[in-house]
Amino acid sequence: SSLPPSLLLFPSCEASEFGEVKLYDVVPNGRHVPVTDENKMEYIQKIAQFRLTNAIKKQTEAFLSGLHDLVPKDLVAIFTPSELELLSCGLPSIDLDNLKSHTELHHWKTSDKEIQWFWEVCSL
């Protein structure tokens, strides 16, 4: 469908970078090139690419720097994304019976309603 005439878009966007808002062109001279029916798909792709990569580039670099302080870059490279997730986050589900059997309650009883609520929430 065609763009409504009242919708004036430009292939540039604002992004907050460590608290400072900056305007970025996602195509050369973007803030001066209106989005048209002919270039709207490129606009969508460029804005999405920017938001998912460039807009968080410094934060991603800071995260990776911290990760590589703990785990050398060449060692991280041997893992698949799924393996890294498992190593950093653990199993996606909780073995509730195992957790209950290893839980020690101090000043609480398993029949206390707060403990019952806790196990109920854990089972969701």
From TrEMBL:
GO CC aspect terms: cytoplasm
E.C. no: 2.3.2.26
One Pfam family matching this protein: HECT
Enzyme superclass (EC): transferase
Keywords: Transferase, Ubl conjugation pathway
One Gene Ontology MF term: ubiquitin protein ligase activity
Protein's UniProt keywords contain Protein transport: no
Catalyzed reaction equations: S-ubiquitinyl-[E2 ubiquitin-conjugating enzyme]-L-cysteine + [acceptor protein]-L-lysine = [E2 ubiquitin-conjugating enzyme]-L-cysteine + N(6)-ubiquitinyl-[acceptor protein]-L-lysine
Pathway this chain belongs to: Protein modification; protein ubiquitination
SUPFAM superfamilies reported in the protein's UniProt record: Hect, E3 ligase catalytic domain
Ranges for domain HECT: 14-124
This protein's name: HECT-type E3 ubiquitin transferase
Organism per entry: Nannochloropsis gaditana
Source organism phylogeny: Eukaryota, Sar, Stramenopiles, Ochrophyta, Eustigmatophyceae
